[in-house]
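help with this record:
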Amino acid sequence: MRTAATHRPPARPATVLVLWVGHRPGPWVRRSLAAAGHRVLPAHPEGAPGGRPVGAREPLRYPSPTRSPDAFVRWVRETCRISGVDVVLSLDEDITRLLAPHAPRLGGARVAGPDARQYRMLCDKGALGATAAAAGVRRPAAVAVGADGPRGDWPPLPCVVKPHRSTADTGDLPAVRVVHDAAARDRAVADLVDAGLGAVVEERVAGEQWVAHCVRAADGGFAGVAARVRETAPRDAGTPSVLDVVGDHPPVLDAARRLFAHAGYVGLGNAQFLVRGGEVLVHDVNLRPPASIGLAVRAGFDAPAWGVAAVLGDARGMSAPPVRPFRYVSGDGEAQVVAAHLRTDGGRRAAPVAARVLAAGLPGGGMMDPPLTDLAWLGDHVGRVARRAAGRAV
């Protein structure tokens, strides 16, 4: 499969501290920034598996940002001072939220992410509706729910229940639940509120799902790559797992541009949309490199390098090249689906899913992320699938 030549910004070397370098975005971001001429300091949580690619040195280790947030922030400040860090880039949602109050600078370095106001406007699911309306972007009907109950009218059933704040750590609770009756909705909401996460209940929109990987520069320049979501993992309501990358989709990319511009956000981000009858509705925004960032790089738009260039003021002339469409398949996501089939239906429906993953990993078959040549990932996930299929903890 041929793709566009990678378009990356002019090199002005900087030292970039990358926080949480496990699969999947970690390897892509490391390679992207190194190819752009930057010195990359990879970092990963203490005691967490992964983070060290084959042939590369062990990453720096930091205290848990969820269990010891103050110690984590102190570690970042000290590392920036000692190592002469110019830019801090988070690949983790909890870290992005934790660093937001300290942006745009932390320990002498720039934070390649939102400040507290921008995070609240775009990443707080309870505030996203107001931001979208002010930016001229539609959103599915939604209501935030706290301990005092819903702060507005319930959206029509069926609906989607998810945490009020974006987080990678929901414990044993599913990150997203689709519910079809009021009793199930109330149970799902109560679980999230009792866990201290709060809840947002959003109407379930029947329509196409799209993802935009994009960067906004300080001068207002904007570029991105769009992909249509074909499957999610889990299938009912999960993370985009199989996507058709088309490159340009003006309505979706324009909606992302409006949101970023209204918040005044400069840097890299990812937005998810639903398209219903030609109407574009935003349903999620993350201001960090997402799990599927590799599809933007493969399409020729080096989003991590452009995101760092944007916060350094070096993103003039940013654009995304024309893309020859291709299919992107998440090895992580589809491995979860295979494991679920092995556990629930004896593997009867697992074979077609596994075949699609393998086909994407073959020359000319699309893009499997990570590729089959990534032996560290492959060995780790064979074990994970086996444990999931047996119903054991991963």
In short: Residues 69-83 form the longest helix (15 residues).
